[in-house]
UniProtKB/TrEMBL annotation:
Its main location: membrane. One of its GO terms (cellular component) is plasma membrane. This is DedA family protein. It comes from the Bacteria. The chain crosses the membrane at residues 12-32, 52-72, 136-159, 165-189. Signal peptide: none annotated. Residues 30-156 form the VTT domain. Pfam families: VTT_dom (PF09335). It is found in: Cell membrane. InterPro entries: DedA_domain, VTT_dom. Keywords: Cell membrane, Membrane, Transmembrane, Transmembrane helix.
Length: 196
C-alpha cells in the first residue's frame, strides 16, 4: 500500500499528503510518516513547495486530530472498545490509556511527537473524557507542528537518502512501540504479582 500511495505524489501532491495525514490521525492505517518524508524530499528537489508541504501536513494533522477528538467526545468508549479487543491494537490502546492517565496533557504532546503510533488512540481517549478540549488542543497543536517539521525537514534534508531514513525511523518506532508494550505488560504482571 505504501508504494501505491507514494506513486500518487507526483500527480496529486499536496492533496494526497492532506488526505493521508488526516486519515492517519483518525487511526486509518495509512503511511503518513513515510509520505510526509517523501513530500519533504519532493520539496528538496523542487517538485513541491516546502512552505506548502509544511502547511498542508500541519493542517491535515490538526484537522484529523480535531475530528478524532470530536468523534470520541460524541461516541466515547464505544469507538475504542471496538479496537481494544484486537490483538494488534489492544496493547497500543492500553499503552495509550496508561500514558494519558499518568502524564495527562504531556501524554498528548508525546503521542503527537515521539510516540506518534499512539497519537490517534491518545486523541480518542482524550476526547472520550480524558481531557478537556481546550487543554487537549493547547498541547496537540504544538505537537502536530513538531511532528510536521520533523518529518518534512528530515525528508527535505536527506532527500538523497530517503529510503535509509524511512527504514531508520520505522525501526526506531518499532523499538519504541515494542518497549512501550513490554513496559505495560511488566506493569500489569507486577500489579498481579502484588495482589496474588
Amino acid at each position: 500500500m505504501t508504494e501505491t500511495v507514494l506513486a500518487l505524489i507526483p500527480d496529486y501532491g499536496l492533496i494526497v499528503v492532506f488526505a493521508v495525514v488526516m486519515l492517519a490521525c483518525m487511526a486509518v492505517p495509512v503511511p503518513a510518516s513515510v509520505l510526509t518524508l517523501t513530500a519533504g524530499s519532493f520539496a528538496a528537489v523542487g517538485d513541491l513547495s516546502l512552505p506548502m508541504v509544511l502547511l498542508t501536513a500541519f493542517l491535515a494533522f490538526a484537522i484529523g486530530d480535531q475530528i478524532a477528538f470530536l468523534l470520541a467526545s460524541r461516541f466515547g468508549r464505544k469507538l475504542l472498545a471496538r479496537f481494544a479487543d484486537s490483538p494488534r491494537m489492544g496493547p497500543i490502546i492500553a499503552r495509550s490509556e496508561d500514558m494519558l492517565n499518568r502524564r495527562g496533557a504531556l501524554a498528548v504532546f508525546l503521542s503527537h511527537t515521539i510516540f506518534s503510533p499512539t497519537c490517534p488512540y491518545v486523541t480518542y481517549l482524550s476526547g472520550s473524557g480524558g481531557l478537556a478540549w481546550s487543554r487537549f488542543t493547547a498541547v496537540a497543536l504544538p505537537g502536530a507542528a513538531v511532528w510536521t517539521a520533523g518529518y518534512v525537514g528530515l525528508g527535505y534534508a536527506f532527500a538523497s537518502q530517503l529510503e535509509q531514513v524511512a527504514t531508520l525511523l520505522s525501526n526506531f518506532f518499532g523499538v519504541v512501540l515494542a518497549s512501550a508494550v513490554a513496559i505495560g505488560a511488566l506493569a500489569v504482571l507486577r500489579k498481579r504479582w502484588a495482589t496474588a
